[in-house]
Amino acid sequence: MPGDAPRLIAGSRPAPGAYDADIVILCLERPAETCAAIRSALAQRGGVFHVSVLDQNSSLETIRALTTAFANAPRFALYRAAQNLGVGGGRNFLGACGHGRIIVGLDNDAVFHDPWTVAGALKIFLRRPELGALGFNILSADGAAPDLASWGYPRLLQPKFREKFDTTTFVGAGHAIRRATWQAVGGYDPSLFFTWEEYDFCLAAISRQWRIAYDGSLAVRHSGAAMARIGWDGTRMTAYVRNRLLISRKWGLSWGALAPRICAYALRGAVNGCLPATLTGIAQAWRAKTPRGRPMPKAMRAYVSAHETRHRGSWFDRLRLEVLSKVGKGFFFEKKKQKTFFTLGRACVSATGPISKKFLRRFFQKAASFFAIASG
Questions:
Q1: Main-chain phi, psi angles of 130, to 5 degrees
Q2: The pTM is what?
């Protein structure tokens, strides 16, 4: 192991022999929320579970709080990394530390809704041998309603938040992965670091004939701690755009085929007031020079179409739900935002040479109609 690999600072690694699940939690500061998440994990019943926590270089005060609270906890391990490994890298490390039949992920600002959530997930995996990963219902902190900020599925499915359906991804705040699927895929792509890592993992699983599901009867309550949120006008938006474009490259799309998606992202950035961060994400994806991968197999395309694309509705539904709902009615009449929109137009002109006003107007209209591609 490299010298700077995370090290065990409290508790013990899982003992040899079979057990049911590894519950894994990543943390960075937020000691109060992290302690609540760990207590929730340790309180799970209905099986043999091991709880593993990776601290991504928090302060000494936070480390002291965690080690003091859980020094004597059974079936518990606390590791500390010298640097932030990212979501994918951190989960990869914790996944490799255990050998439970399933790997259950919990955000450190979330708690299980009841003590039988992990046991419920185990039963579902036993009933469905083809199931590779399972998304939980992410509720608000009081458990009364879904946490809409954490809804990772087509918006038309939101009314079904308490139901069950097959899908193409899961939300990291609460989920479970079959270890056999984890091993087949090879874990997350650590280069994505943050955002879209779950979708990337699920696409790789789907290509290997695994299915992904959502079960609204299994829930976590998500506090969404303020200091955990990275604004959509900064790092989060840049990573969101960069990673989604790189994932598309993995599945065979050329840069020419990605042009509508890129335009849609630029439009989305302009609408939401974070155009510079969006353009940075596009530039980073281009500079990454990710080689074009193989196209999705026919069966995989059919699965994605059936369990994702058709639930996004018509282009009008997508425009209404995923664009217009994000801005005020007077967006195109607000001088500040109107200026941002025209700045985008000037950027396109300077990048591609003289373009007629008529062509540019049609160009943006076409980009808007493709917005749904960018939102998926």
A1: -85, -5
A2: 0.85
Q: Which residue is associated with the tokens 């699983």?
A: 205
Helix intervals (H) in the chain: 31-42, 60-70, 86-97, 117-127, 179-185, 197-206, 235-250, 259-271, 275-288, 298-307, 315-322, 335-352, 357-369, 371-375
Tokens 């353009």 found at: 279
pLDDT 10s digits, 263-313 = 888 888 888 888 999 999 999 999 999 999 999 999 999 999 999 999 987
* DSSP code per residue over 317-360: HHHHHHTGGGS-TTGGG-HHHHHHHHHHHHHHHHHH----HHHH
273-to-39, 196, 338, 363 alpha-carbon distances in Å: 39, 21, 10, 20
Per-residue pLDDT tens for 191-243? 999 999 999 999 999 999 999 999 999 999 999 654 444 455 578 899 999 99
Angle between helices 197-206 and 298-307 (to 10 degrees): 130
DSSP string of 279-300, one letter each residue: HHHHHHHHHHTPPP-PPPPHHH
Of the candidates 26, 32, 30, which has an alpha carbon nearest to the alpha carbon of residue 52? Answer: 26
Give 3's contacts (C-beta < 8 A, 6+ positions apart).
none
Q: What is the pLDDT of residue 358?
A: 54
In a 10 Å sphere around its CB, with 0-12 CB exposed, 13-18 middle and 19+ buried, how is residue 354 labelled? Answer: exposed
3-state helix vs strand vs coil in the chain, percent to 5: 50, 15, 35
CB 346 within 8 A of CB 239: no
Burial of 7 (0-12, 13-18, 19+ CB in 10 A): exposed
- Neighbouring CB atoms inside 10 A of 347's CB total 13
Gap between the Cα atoms of 186 and 174, Å rounded: 20
Residue 314 CA, chain-centre distance (Å), reads 24
